[in-house]
From TrEMBL:
This is XXLT1 xylosyltransferase. GO terms for molecular function: xylosyl alpha-1,3-xylosyltransferase activity. GO terms for biological process: protein O-linked glycosylation via N-acetyl-galactosamine. SUPFAM superfamilies: Nucleotide-diphospho-sugar transferases. Keywords: Transferase. It holds the Pfam family Glyco_transf_8. InterPro entries: Glyco_trans_8 (IPR002495), Nucleotide-diphossugar_trans (IPR029044), XXLT1 (IPR042465).
Amino acid sequence: QVIVHDVNELTEKLFPIVEAMQKHFSAGSGTYYSDSIFFLSVAMHRIMPKEITRVIQVDLDLKYKTNIRDLFDEFDNFPEGAVIGIAREMQPVYRHTFWQYRRENPQTKVGEPPPDGLPGFNSGVLLLNLEAMRQSKLYNQLLEPTMVQKLTEKYHFKGHLGDQDFFTMVGMEHPELFHVLDCTWNRQLCTWWRDHGYSDVFDQYFQCEGEVRIYHGNCNTPIPED
């Protein structure tokens, strides 16, 4: 069954919820109404009908090497309290974004590579447990403008990647809200940061063991042919 949702209608519902966070996580200098759609996943639980309890949201620049139905099984692996399934970011983009916080907190795991660090998240493949999102008092508190402001000030955070930035910042503070997907479910291919100042540590973020299940050709990177 295919249901088509009107983008303008969704944006109209989204805008009041995400308006406050857009100035922190958008590329533009202000808060643009049209930008709201880049925060769809953040508030999906507020605008989708109650009977929809689980959603997989994916980028368009993906290539599937396995049945997407297998990804649904990951919902069963969510630990108690987790509301979103998401893979780690595979470039040192957040090592860069959190530079000031990292300088002030030299022992922090924020922005450090896996397996022990907190490299941030990539929102190309998202598992949204809408029912859990609706019921999580903590998650809904974090959507409030005052909480967003508080966290962005704590981490000196200014991003430009929409929902991904929000999830990353929240994940630094409350990792228990997230089920971390294996990198093979979102094998990102972009290598932009390798050539922009981070060649010495790049491979620590970029390595991914195992048989790839979804390729992600982010930043217009070609996806390998079969």
